[in-house]
Amino acid sequence: MKIAIAGAGAMGSRYGYMLHEKGNDVLLIDGWEDHVKAINENGLRIDENGTSKNVKIPAVLPKDATEVPDLVILFTKSMGLETMLTSIKNILGPNTKVLCLLNGLGHEETVAKYVDKKNVFMGVTLWTAGLVGPGHVTLTGDGSLEVQNIDSSMTDAAKEICDVLSQAGLKAHYSENVVFSIWRKACVNGTLNSCCTLLDCNIKQFGSLGETSNIIRKIITEFSEVAKHYGVTLDVEETAKGIEAIYDPSQAGEHYPSMHQDLIQHHRRTEIDYINGYVSRKAKELGIAAPYNDLITSFIHAKEDLLV
Ligand code: NAD
Predict the structure, then answer these.
(1) Which of 62, 130, 213, 232 has its Cβ near the most Cβ atoms within 10 Å?
(2) Could you identify the atom of ligand 1 that is nearest to the CA of residue 104?
(3) What's the pTM?
């Protein structure tokens, strides 16, 4: 399949590499010039399980992407999604399927501004990857993903996308309710990512604090109130228990969430406006109080002002 990866950072490189290894015709599209140059000159360097290799995969800046692919996989950070969609408009053909795998809320509406609804596919990925430097990524751990069509007539196309991804070892499953999974993952990010970032601690340390149980339930309750308006029912207690299971060091307890890595460790802006910030904004529009998400969003922005 002819596949363009739009946003070829850590995750885009992982997906692009695995799909390329399976024989798909992959193009990496990214706006970071040094990264694109390094990939074209030296190949994409993949560090995985203690080994390192350079893989030849073509990479271009968005303005230089000209061929219409069968599938575009969107993997920018949330803040870059709309700009990316604008700059690759010319390669989105009438039959090009677009799969959005970013974390966060509200992306379906953004993608639907640029892509016919029948070609929009949403997903949630549990794979991980890290960007070491230009043209260099590190792949760790195992993963899987869920994919679903937005238009009810496109189930077979979603299943075909799952097959292509699974053949490349990405373990894609057709989801009966991807919107629920997107909200549920946003609850994990909206508690662990933002709180560990503000408190400058890892997940296990956050879990050990006296107020944590109360705080995560307050945050998730506000998520669930907004989610209802999108037809999504989140069970607050079940969601909280799922998050509490992650405190265990055998899960991800020792890890610092990606928002901590972005803001505290690398002084980069975060995806907060698409997680707690989305709930805060939508709650205001709906006339619902969301004081926990309002405050967390303001504090993360304040921290960005201090560090970025
Ligand atoms: P990243 O910062 O490593 O990569 C994003 C890439 O997109 C960068 O190379 C950047 O140059 C490019 N980009 C961004 N905006 C652009 C634009 N407008 N035009 C051109 N290029 C643009 O990010 P990542 O870690 O790969 O994360 C991507 C998404 O996947 C995020 O939503 C993240 O939350 C989610 N995610 C990441 C992980 C992980 O382990 N890294 C795991 C699950 C989900």
Answers:
(1) 62
(2) 32
(3) 0.97
Token code pair at residue 140:
């760790």
Length of the chain: 308
Coil vs helix vs strand at 79: helix
Q: Is the CB of 125 under 6 A from ligand 1?
A: yes
CA 238 to each of CA 208, 247, 293: distance values in angstroms, whole numbers, following the listed order: 19, 15, 20
Q: Ligand 1, closest atom to CA 130?
A: 41
Do residues 25 and 3 make contact, with C-beta atoms less than 8 angstroms apart?
yes
- pLDDT tens readout for residues 107-132: 999 999 999 999 999 999 999 999 99
Please report the sign of the dihedral spanned by the C-alpha atoms of residue 300, residue 302, residue 305, residue 306: negative
Cα separation of 119 and 285, whole Å?
Answer: 29
- The DSSP line for 138-189 is EE-S---EEEEESSGGGHHHHHHHHHHHHHTT--EEE-S-HHHHHHHHHHHI
Spacing, Cα 9 to ligand 1 middle (Å): 5
